[in-house]
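ESCALATION

Customer reports they have been waiting on this structure for their group meeting. Please prioritize. Original submission:
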Amino acid sequence: MIVKACTKCKGIKPLNEFYTHPRTKDRRQSRCKKCCLRIPMHLLSPEEQIIRIAYRLKETLKHKDRINKYMKEYNKKTIGQRYKNHIRRNYGITMEDYNRMLDSQGGTCLICGKPNKNGHRLCVDHDHTTNKTRGLLCIVCNRNLGWYEKYKDVINKYLSCGI
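Update from on-call: job pushed to the front of the queue and completed.
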């Protein structure tokens, strides 16, 4: 087995622990893969950046199942907190406000009176000009209302013509 010394960490490692380099005598970089990954991306040449991205992608794909399992567990743990942050940031209401609105509507859509399908939460409906929250809607009514608001003038013009 052929070995080489890393110029950064001074470790003696096999050649497969070094990236290839077309302009060196042994066709390998002087730093080992681990030391190359410690250098900030913006200090690398474009070729070295491509090599690093390819290596990280290869490492990610090697551990794809483990990463997917971790992400599923993480998403299950954090879904409630992420939704709380979403409604606070986008609509200016807390989860308590949302639950109060849900109770006052009987857990159903404000327009059609049906609960949301598949156990999903009801959507927070708000006025896009004033950002004032109007109520909770099922996904279907929320999309249809958004579409109507976007094309209100065209629809009213069509309906007034009586065609």
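Sent to customer with the following note: The longest helix spans residues 64-91.
Escalation resolved.
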